[in-house]
Amino acid sequence: MNEVLEKTEAITKKGKALGADEVVAETVFGRYRQTRFSNNQIDITVAWNNYTTDVALAWNKRLVATQIRNFQNTDKIMDQLFKLAKVSKENPMYGGIAKGTFKYPKPTADKKLQELENPSEYALESIEAIKKEVGAEVNAGGTLYTKYEDVYLASSEGPTGQDARSAIELSIRAFSQIDASGHGVECCSSLKDFKPLRAGEKAGKIAKLAKNPKQGEEGKYDVIFDPLFFGSLLGTWGSMVSAYSVMIQLSVFVKKLGQKVASDIVTLRDKPAEYSINNRAFDAEGFPVQENVFIDHGVLKTYLHNTSTAKIFKTKTTGNAGLVQPKPWNIEMDPGNMSKDELFSQVKRGLYLTNTWYTRFQNYSTGDFSTIPRDGIFLIENGEIKESWKDLRLSDNALRLLNQIAGISKERQHIHWWGLDYGIPSLSPFVLAKDIQLTRPK
Length: 442
Fold this sequence. Notes:
Strand order of the largest sheet: 3-2-1-4-5-6
Number of domains: 2
Helix content: 10-25%
Number of helices: 10
Strand content: 35-45%
Radius of gyration: 23 Å
């Protein structure tokens, strides 16, 4: 057995010896690199390693957790953790963790990302792509991040496993003018699929189109959402389909299982797929992850569960632990039957929104929310982009927006960047939604 896995198992045995009912420990040895750049130049590249073990211990429905670094002071920390459990309040919602032994797929992590020495070249490649689109006067900046993690999990209830996870992410923003910008991202789990030119070209094209923006006009519009914008919304809905969010009423999906919550053409699934920067073999309980369709042709089919929430809802875990809060791994929206150009041709007068941030809910239960479009906002007339706009806010309702979806592109893009409100990656298409409310920021 691997030495790291043995040490991780020893932590769970120590917890049981102290009197804990259940113990699960996950050790991650991670190698990370980040490059930051601005004004078309590299600012800094840093590399670091991290060796941590996350430990969760349950005793008499009291769940506590801590982190151990480099396997240092393990016995002392576990003693303190058990003492903490004995003085903690009972969690009536805690229903245990997954039991049994499971087979996991072979890890697909890309070792080239473990060995990558000069990530700056990819950032520079993307900057050059922006310059070709906009010209040398453009100002580009962003981040490039890579990771390679070896993961070892041991549970007192049976699950034991090893995994390896890799990712590379580029987020780049281009300014053609102080109030005209475009944003592109490129992210995947392997170096061979990474295309930094695509992110630069997209950011450059949007920044160029966004020049000389006019004041946006309030009103209801048919809106085409770019994958970067819609991916953010997918993360929001993925978070809301967590059973924990439903239980604490921070979800539009409360008491809606089996009901129509979206347009008939909408199918959403949580899928920790091989391409995703969030792919994995098991969740925090050691239960194998799986694909979960949570909206099927507009109908809400399931919430996302860990073992505890599954017992409350009288169902089975969906492999989405978080021991306290189940969480999605990677949201996919099924593709439609139209190309991007065909979507645009459906719009007589509407808007193309390329990116967003600061999504805020006035009421989580009803779904009333607003979000601020950033970077390119474009007026569409008869399928063509006519001019650039600025200073608008999308102010509508989440369930209404889901039901107003009238077109979905065949093309999809894997989306993730630091500005996403829930940090959940997605595979997002271009989406056409009808009659969406845009207001002026107050």
